[in-house]
Amino acid sequence: MSKDSNARQAYTIVLFIFFTTSLVESLVVSHLNAFLPVYLHQDLAVSQKNVPIFLALSTAIEFVLGLPLVPFWGVWADKFSRKWVIARSAYVEALVFFMIGASHSVVMFVISLLFVGFQLGNTGVMLSAIRDVAPAKRTGFAIALFGLASPLGFALGPLMGSFLVEHTGLGLHGLFMLDGVLSAGTGVLVSALFREVRPKAPPQGRTIDLALRAVSRVFTSPRIRKLFIIFGLVILGRQMVSPFIPLLVIHLHPMRYGQLSAIGLVTGTSALAGAAISPLAGALGDRIGFRRVLFVSVLVMAASFFLMAVSQSVLALAALSLFFSAANSINFAMIFSMLATTLSDEERTPALNLVYVPLYISGIIGPILAGAIARTDLALVFIAAGVMALIGAWVVYLTRTRTVVMTPEPRA
Fold first, then answer.
1. Which of 25, 171, 226, 289 suits 331 as a labelling partner, its CA being 20 to 30 A distant?
2. Which residues cross the membrane (predicted)?
3. Looking at the domain that runs over 9-192, which CATH code has it been given?
4. What is the pTM of this model?
């Protein structure tokens, strides 16, 4: 039976729904990531000395609460309902942003972040649904197009958000409330327009057993462990730096007027560059090897971190952020390509379902480590991140000849 016969809805409609959902999610999250230092200091009266530690804790808490639920979202979606697992993410996201927008104290802001862990876990489910409804000859195109939504949202978000706050009088509280409305809108979009698509063979058994089985498959496989360690080390530097780039912009542009626009310039345009270069890197990886491209990309990221530490202007920082964002996008693309080509069929599915575990662990360790360093000197955060990136490049180099590419057997 072909995949098309099981499709309950035109794949173009499903792609539109999920592209919009992912775009909005990235856009609203980018507002929080980019403008959080300003929000903490100007709106919640956190002293400049304490902003770094609040940045670190607010970033890490999202991953601390989300990590235990990672194995469950895919199981719940396949066992019960993909539609409501995806819609759940949008509605919880709306609640989080409504609470952040209504926060006038650090306590209420922290309480709002406690719900973020229940917001995560929708991307893999959307990808599974797209694979099930798209015609076989259009699956790659559909997934590639869906993949553009997130970087596009992260690029547009800071630029649009800074304009709205600085030129319309909306304010950051109003911006976050608007983000809540947009998130709720995507929840309604999924609930009303997406028709449930069930997997051909829904998992049987208790949810906890299915989740633990997936975790066991991942961490008992030497190949998966090796790739996950590489992934974690490569992105640790990124997780250290990302929350503190807006803080570095503020340091270089201390005047309040135009501050958000400067943050938008640095974080928004760099994200767009990353989205543009990733497909080119994929083609290069096919020709010379994913690990070689990854090695060079991590070195470029390390160099960008070291140079950020001594940046003297917003424009210089924006230029370096272009290199960082491009390298970061290439790193993700190469890691995913290595997972897809170096694992057996039995290893690949659980590995892809749990692929963000290294991201979550690095998302806990990186910001906390960076927050402690930033209280001494902000520039040291970027130097430390550069060192971490070099360690990651060293591990990639050491494992360059030890991975065997798995070629799929021809189908009958």
1. 25
2. 12-32, 52-73, 85-102, 108-129, 141-164, 170-194, 227-250, 262-281, 293-310, 316-339, 351-373, 379-398
3. 1.20.1250.20
4. 0.83
